[in-house]
Amino acid sequence: MAFQRLPLFHRCRNSIRNGSLHYGKHSSKRDRLRRIARIGDHCACGLPSGVKYVDLDPGVAIGFAPKLARFSQPIVQVFASFPANFLFPLATMAFLKFHISLNWGSILLMALGAQWYILFNIIGGAQSIPNDLREMSRNLGLRGVRAWKKLIGPGVFASWVTGAITASGGAWNASIVSELVSWGNIKLSARGLGAYIADATEKGDWPRIVLGVGIMSLFVVAFNRLIWRPLYRLAENKYRIA
Questions:
Q1: pTM beyond 0.85
Q2: Gap between the Cα atoms of 131 and 109, Å rounded
Q3: Rounded distance, CA 233 to CA 212, Å?
Q4: How would DSSP label each residue in 26-53?
Q5: For 76, which DSSP code?
Q6: What homologous superfamily is domain 2-19+32-238 in, according to CATH?
């Protein structure tokens, strides 16, 4: 089965194969409970405080709760469809009021539009984790960071990589409009490639526009080949749930 690639499944299977659950006819009740607990220990070397850590990640929390998913997914889709650049003037006012440099503020502006790609993919990844595997971990009483390390993390890793790749592309595009923002007569500019392209576009300087877009394209290709492609290959070969 596809979820047999998950580390949690391997630990439980190996515990059973090694005889941890095998007991003779005359074994005492204490010995049986001790051996069952040993399987729980072998499987448990793996999960975060189940509910507490799930709540830290909205995508996993929504994916693990069907009722919550039916209620929240339409709301999330409405927020995701709202153009993030409509919020830029409000964000600019906040940056001016709290004296926040756009070098840092532009990160927030880029995240406003890119975060939804990751959220939707994490929700799908959490929903794809087999129910029998989740029920097994719940019955064994598994808690702690090991849940994320052995079950949830590997289970949603492939979906996270897919969402991160999409979000990364969206963030590169958003950098052009988020690193150079204005409010009335006030203009804020960050030191970045997006601000360079935006300034060149505003002045109609085509050589600088071509240079900036060309460098951004090189960055995108380099990131895809050096970071995202190896991560995607790892997700496909080791953590894919079909």
A1: no
A2: 37
A3: 30
A4: T--HHHHHHHHHHHHHHHHTTBS-HHHH
A5: H
A6: MetI-like (1.10.3720.10)
Residue owning tokens 């503020």: 105
CB of 168 closer than 8 Å to CB of 228: yes
* Residues in the chain where the model's pLDDT stays below 50: 1-9, 11-13, 15-27, 29, 32-56
Rounded to an integer, what distance in angstroms lies between the CA atom of residue 196 and that of residue 211? Answer: 10
Domain boundaries, the chain: 2-19+32-238
For residue 3, give every residue at least 6 positions away whose Cβ sits within 8 Å of its Cβ, in sequence order, or none: 9, 129, 130, 133, 155, 241
Nearest to 53 by CA among 148, 120, 160, 153: 148
User: Which tens digits make up the pLDDT trace of 185-240?
Assistant: 778 888 899 999 999 998 999 999 999 999 999 999 999 999 999 999 998 888 77
d(CA 109, CA 102): 9
The residues pairing with 183 across neighbouring beta strands, listed in sequence order, are 186
